[in-house]
């Protein structure tokens, strides 16, 4: 199986204390996600850095449920220090919905590269991580979510999302198993 690493929303909005969607537990995924990225870089695995980014001054359907956020060019939309494409086999996908697949060319890109499985890390487990896992499954990719490299500010919803992912969409794997998969 050929995997790609999907790094979801590791942006200032969630990870920086001044971020508009910051929650303290988000910091717990920084080191595990960086370790996954390092392993993927070493093995030349494709890394997709996903950014939740929206256009200033335009309505966006997410605003039905959420306030305006992640405006392109803003501090909040920027990748947090140590994240974002570093060259090589790394790309950025901008998304305007919870899923990295919805309305983007991510599935097409991965298929063109011969990828048939995804390893997912990032924030937030019950929203963007779960939506991405569900759409990865719907697009025919084998899904693996790294338990230590995802979290949310709604712990009970995060646990429920991981249970759903394990039961219906793919596997929830440990950090050590993920490092082996990417190595």
TrEMBL record:
GO terms for molecular function: hydrolase activity. Keywords: Hydrolase. The keyword Transit peptide does not apply. Its EC number is 3.5.1.107. It comes from the Bacteria. Coiled coil: none annotated. Residues 4-175 form the Isochorismatase-like domain. Pfam families: Isochorismatase. PANTHER family: ISOCHORISMATASE-LIKE DOMAIN-CONTAINING PROTEIN, PEROXYUREIDOACRYLATE/UREIDOACRYLATE AMIDOHYDROLASE-RELATED. This is Maleamate amidohydrolase. It comes from Planktotalea frisia. The gene is nicF.
């Amino acid at each position: 199986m050929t995997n790609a690493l999907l790094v979801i929303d590791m942006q200032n909005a969630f990870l920086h204390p001044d971020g508009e969607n910051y929650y303290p537990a988000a910091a717990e995924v920084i080191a595990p996600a960086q370790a996954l990225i390092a392993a993927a870089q070493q093995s030349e695995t494709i890394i997709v850095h996903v950014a939740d980014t929206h256009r200033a001054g335009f309505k966006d359907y997410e605003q039905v449920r959420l306030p305006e956020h992640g405006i392109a060019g803003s501090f909040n939309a920027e990748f947090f220090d140590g994240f974002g494409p570093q060259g090589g086999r790394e790309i950025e996908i901008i998304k305007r919905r919870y899923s990295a697949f919805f309305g983007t060319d991510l599935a097409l890109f991965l298929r063109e590269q011969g990828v048939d499985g995804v390893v997912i890390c990032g924030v937030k487990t019950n929203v963007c991580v779960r939506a991405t896992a569900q759409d990865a499954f719907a697009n025919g990719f084998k899904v693996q979510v790294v338990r230590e490299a995802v979290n949310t500010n709604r712990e009970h919803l995060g646990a429920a999302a991981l249970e759903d992912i394990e039961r219906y969409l793919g596997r929830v794997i440990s950090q050590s198993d993920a490092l082996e998969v990417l190595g």
